[in-house]
Write a structure and sequence with these properties.
Elements (H helix, E strand, L loop, with lengths): L1 H26 L1 H5 L2 H4 L12 E6 L3 H8 L9 E4 L2 H9 L3 E4 L5 H8 L2 E7 L5 H9 L3 E5 L8 H6 L1 H8 L4 E4 L2 H9 L5 E2 L16 E9 L1 H13 L6 E6 L5 H7 L6 E2 L11 E3 L6 H5 L2 E6 L13 H5 L3 E4 L7 H9 L3 E3 L3 H10 L8 H8 L3 H9 L3
Parallel strand pairs: 1-2, 1-4, 2-3, 4-5, 5-6, 6-7, 8-9, 8-12, 9-11, 10-11, 12-13, 13-14
């Protein structure tokens, strides 16, 4: 009884806040429309009429790497996102892309009625969307479920709420044992399926050049990278930096000014000793395929906990990362186990790794990939069986 009461109070407060936020956004609508980034917000209020057997929803680009791995198996599915960058990435991948509307019944009910099944990824737990989907008889699945260790104390305080919410799912698939334990502590059962973003991960070796690639970087990573480059002999090597948020390009240009950083064009137009900045999306695969060494950003920030470590491994690029890979614990273990990368703790270690070009006597990229591959047949069984 107490659990139901607490759940009701939290849900009422959530809806009250969301209604107020949406109402306020329309009051200041003219100011939003003057800015291109905030103008995209109003795309979320569009009512679509197309019907589809499946909706795949994830918040941003990183989460949608897990959903897009399923695109060849569900070509008629609709893929929804919260951000304009994710929406653009979905379009570029050839998916039927939409913005997800605000999580209010007025907008969610018309959305839900267009699909026979709804799958959400990672931690996209929109309460109204989930409950209205179940009430409407739609099979609702959570894949790549993630409840971060850092936020677990807060989740546990609100355990009655999350318990009732998570138990509405037909099935929950999680990437590793740590996440299964997190969901168990919240009162929900789950199955370890590994991460769907690795369903189609294959070893694609290619001819390497003396390219060092710094990918998905944040300011904390860039401070370490800048110090490492100052320590390093940059002759005969090429350095490419791709920030997590490409709209930071001008800020990075200013910070790296003394290194004469220039805009990246292609892997075929690079000069030894040069430092290049990627200021647009969609180029990472091309660079991974040529980079002998890759440093994955977000790993010098305790707030971020790292980014996808397996992408460069798939291209045979020796992979480095900093001390914070809390969100990629099992990936880092697989990488170190098979000798295809290592953890570094400071700029000096990064500089030393650059000098060595990641040379390791016992690299087995294929085994590292196979250890992390998702059980695609188990995923298909969950998604295709009748709810």
């Amino acid at each position: 009884m107490i659990d139901i009461l607490l759940f009701s109070v939290i849900l009422i407060a959530y809806n009250a806040f969301l209604h107020a936020a949406v109402f306020l956004s329309f009051l200041i609508c003219p100011f939003f429309l003057l800015n291109r980034r905030t103008r995209d917000y109003f795309e979320r209020f569009r009512f679509y009429k197309t019907f589809s057997p499946m909706l795949f929803h994830a918040a941003s680009v990183g989460e949608h790497r897990g959903s897009l791995a399923l695109l060849p198996l569900f070509p008629e599915a609709v893929f929804s996102a919260n951000t304009s960058t994710a929406f653009a990435a979905l379009k570029n991948a050839g998916a039927r892309a939409e913005f997800l509307p605000p999580d209010l019944p007025l907008f969610m009910l018309p959305l839900i009625r267009r699909f026979s099944g709804i799958t959400v990824f990672e931690s996209e737990l929109n309460p109204n969307m989930i409950f209205l989907s179940v009430i409407s008889g739609r099979k609702t699945v959570l894949l790549n479920g993630r409840m971060s260790n850092r936020n677990m104390p807060l989740y546990l305080i609100m355990k009655p709420f999350y318990k009732m919410l998570l138990r509405r799912f037909y099935a929950i698939g999680v990437p590793d044992e740590q996440q299964r334990e997190n969901f168990r502590r919240l009162g929900a059962g789950s199955t370890v399926l590994k991460n769907t973003k690795y369903c189609r991960l294959d070893y694609r070796p290619s001819e390497k050049r003396n390219i060092i690639f710094f990918v998905s970087t944040h300011p904390e990573d860039e401070a370490v990278i800048l110090d490492a480059l100052r320590m390093s002999n940059r002759k005969e090597k090429v350095f490419i930096l791709a920030p997590r948020h490409v709209n930071r390009a001008s800020e990075i240009m200013k910070n790296f000014g003394k290194l004469n950083i220039t805009a990246f064009t292609s892997v075929h137009d690079l000069n030894p000793g040069g430092v290049y900045l990627v200021d647009r999306m969609g180029l990472t695969a091309e660079i991974y395929a040529r980079a002998a060494l890759t440093f994955v950003g977000g790993s010098f920030s305790s707030r971020t906990g790292g980014h996808n470590l397996m992408e460069p491994v798939g291209y045979g690029s020796y992979t480095l990362y900093g001390p914070h890979t809390e969100n990629f614990k099992y990936e880092s273990l697989a990488i170190e186990k098979h000798g295809v990368g290592k953890r570094i703790s400071d700029a000096r270690q990064l500089s030393e790794a650059i000098a060595d070009m990641g040379v390791s006597g016992n690299c087995n990229f294929e085994n590292a990939i196979n250890e992390m591959k998702c059980d695609i047949q188990a995923v298909l069984k969950i998604l295709k069986e009748k709810g």
